[in-house]
Specification:
With 258 residues, the chain is of the alpha/beta class. Helices cover 42% and strands 12% of the residues. Keywords: Hydrolase.
Length: 258
Amino acid sequence: MTFTQRYVALGDSFTEGVGDEDESRPNGVRGWADRVAEQLVLADDSWGYANLAIRGKKLHQVLNEQVDAAIALSPTLVTVYAGGNDILRPKVDIDAIVDAYDGGIAKLRSSGAAVLVFTGFDSGQSPVFGRTRGRTALYNELVREIVDKNDAVLVDYWRMKILQDERYWAVDRLHMSPAGHMLTAKKVLEVLRGTDAIDLPELEEQRSRNRVEQLRRDAQWAREYLGPWVSRRLRGVSSGDNLNPRYPELIQPPLPAR
């Protein structure tokens, strides 16, 4: 099938769709990028869609493994977010990674594609990941400079304060829940000045917890998610090892049942 408009999504777990489980789809996830593609096709069936993002990828891997592959698909629209996994490492040179990012965004723009870039999320309320807030703030300022320099489009994820609500996050507290992915898809389409028919789910009532309940909940999370995450980092392995891109070639995205 020939597509006159071609959307290619690049990045890590954020763009792959982790947290928005759907066993009927490649890698068992759906995510905001799929949801954006679905809405683009509903408005105009000339759109094709590819998703090259793989969980766990650091910025240099996204640039080295995905940018040329994306350009080979002759995209008219590219979305990209990279750097989050670098920021979470014990040591990172923010200036260096963003300088490399600048080169990748420039290369994508030189292909003729419109490029949409995200700032990082404000994790200030997280007792664990909140320690990286200063790094993310610096990263974001440099990303904004990249966007201006390359005439790209920005989704300011940092300023989406509604996502501070834990109900928009998966149980691992690192990836968005389906509701978070839906909200992000609506924001992306808003920035692209596209229409959407995404109905956000009604969130469950958030009950208060006493200190003992919260400590018990935090301990369970540390055992089931934080511990394995730290272990992978220490062993130099990634949750994305042995995974392939979900949609490496342009497809008409699977549309949700009405």
